[in-house]
Amino acid sequence: APHFCRPSRRLAAMNAQHFELLKELVNPNYAAQAEQARNSRSALITNLLSQRRLPDKGWDDASIRAFLEELASFDTNNFMGNVGVGEREGRIYSSLVRERHFGLSHGIGRSGDVMAEQPKAAGSSVLVQLTRYLSLDAIRIAGIKAAKACCVLPTATGLTMTLVFLALRQMRPSGAYVVWSRIDQKSCFKAIGAAGLKPIVVELKPVSGTDALGTDVEGMRKAIERVGAENVLCVCTTTSTFAPRVPDSIDEVAVMAKALDVPHVINNAYGLQCSKCTHLIEQGCRTGRVDAFVQSTDKNFMVPVGGAIVAAPNPKLTDKISEIYPGRASLSPLLDLFITLLSLGASGWKQLLDARKANATWFQERLSAVADKQGLRVLKVPANRISFAVDLTELAKSLQATGQDETDHLTFLGSALFTRRVSGPRVVVCAKPSASSMEAPAEADAPQDGSAPQVKVKGKYSKTVDGTMFHSYGAHTDTYSSCYVTVACAIGAEREDLEAFLARFENALHDYRRGAGRKDKDPGGKAREKDKQPASVNGTPEPACGR
Predict the structure, then answer these.
(1) What's the farthest any 2 CA atoms get from each other in the chain?
(2) Among 49, 308, 331, 359, which one is least packed by beta carbons within 10 Å?
(3) Three-class SS of residue 202?
């Protein structure tokens, strides 16, 4: 008959008395040597529990596994002789599932606080607190030394942002609006609506002397004043982003938020890996107001999707977030992060950050050389140190002689790269500026409820997100002077992979110029497909895709 998996009956760790007894069974020198090895691992645990920061050098897998098994033995479901008669006793049916979670089955938190200790799970509770300490240390090493508190949640960035807004709403009941510097990424925008709040979208503005799009700080100030600072829950800025957008002017917005007494929340999704982003947050914390900044665990620490870290200069908001989380939560994202941070250690984490920074500089130079060889150019966006954009204007112009639309077929490039087993690039096709679209809306036309005024221009690839229309979605702006493809040099990317991408990118450009995947017109005027699907390197064609 089926039965659930019984907990493994792991014996207690060897103590000093055990090793003394061993000397009666084997050569005393051998027993002493074994005890010394055992004590070396015990010293790792002692340092971790006392210092509560990343170890200088990462732990080996055997030491991590032994420590996790030790922690798991503190949870009641793993007690020898324990009899559970409650409705939730950490029972696990599958031995495979049990092994995957090291027997840690009680999750985290209690009904009143997701970071609270559990009477039934002392080991899991210790792991939660250690993960918080290690995460905070990693954030400080990355450059945000002003961070004083954090909570690690088993939710991805978007839902975590919603929890931040909901916590702020309890602390600031009159706040109904979120003044949001536009970024064309759905989850961060939908987080506002999910919290029952109204977004005020502030469009970006060109950064002088570059191709970049940056923060309209004055526009954010006017939006706050239009509805009244007391009615604004917070201003929301972003660091990590797709080029040609650059990180928001966090320092300037923080000063403004402090002056107007408005909370400031930062979406730092994958900005922890970039010193430019962390420096901006550090400056914002020290010179202005930053209430919280949220970062993804998977994008920064290379763990499976499902976790985020909320950090802040003081614990007031992070404690409130923990309190409003309904019920217990999964331990899995925290366990993944804990294992990874122990594996990295401080030196490994620093090496990853330094390697990404060096790779980004190298990759930008190589990408520029490839683009120049193909008659293209990399957009000038110096403040974005992670994402790079290649202007496809000249590539699109090659179609004009055939009478085809000069931009409609650019999305084939994304398909061509995907079939070459390249993931991540985004082809963005957007409406070009016109005289009418560049005119600022009259002040009298501004909505009285403080929502963002709509620019009257018909953009390509418009998209409605949570009831709000965005033109040229993906470009972070209603109009932009060129269509482009973006690629990123993120943490963990290796030069071998980047080299392979550059070669495949050139091949995809060659195929595009030969007409693969584009529509031509036959002499009768009817459209026909020419090479409807781009050739695939593995023989399996994929449908054309856009951004």
Answers:
(1) 98
(2) 49
(3) strand
Q: What's phi and psi for 172, nearest 5 deg?
A: -140, 75
Strands ordered across the beta sheet of 484-488: 377-378, 387-391, 484-488, 426-428
DSSP code per residue over 118-173: -TTBHHHHHHHHHHHHHHHHHHHHHT-TT--EEEEESS-HHHHHHHHHHHHHHH-T
pLDDT digits (tens, 9 = 90+) for 10-23: 556 777 887 777 77
DSSP 57: S
- How far apart CA 234 and CA 169 sit, in angstroms, is 9
Rounded-to-integer distance, Cα 309 and Cα 445, Å: 40
Written as six digits, the tokens of 291 are 């209430």
Count of helices and strands (H, E) across the chain: 16, 17
Phi, psi of 387 (to 5 degrees): -105, 145
Dist. CA 289–CA 275, nearest whole Å:
20
Q: Are 45 and 342 in contact (CB under 8 A)?
A: no
Quickly count: other Cβ atoms within 10 Å of residue 532's Cβ: 13
Residues 271-314 pLDDT 10s: 999 999 999 999 999 999 999 999 999 999 999 999 999 999 99
Instruction: Please report which confidence band the pLDDT of residue 387 belongs to, taking 50, 70 and 90 as the band edges.
Output: very high
User: Whole-model pTM?
Assistant: 0.85
Residue 114 to residues 59, 94, 332, 358: CA-CA distances in angstroms? Answer: 28, 26, 14, 39
pLDDT band at 394, cuts 50/70/90?
confident
Q: Which of 121-125, 191-195, 523-527 has the highest mean pLDDT?
A: 191-195
Rounded alpha-carbon distances, angstroms, from residue 524 to 220, 334, 520, 521, 528: 54, 63, 11, 8, 10
Mean pLDDT confidence for 241-262: 97
Check whether 126 has a pLDDT greater than 70. yes
Query: C-alpha angle with apex 422: 416 to 428, nearest 5 degrees?
Result: 60
Find where tokens 């995947």 sit: 517
In sequence order, what are the residues at sequence separation of 6 or more whose Cβ sits closer than 8 angstroms to the Cβ of residue 391?
A: 211, 371, 376, 377, 378, 379, 482, 483, 484
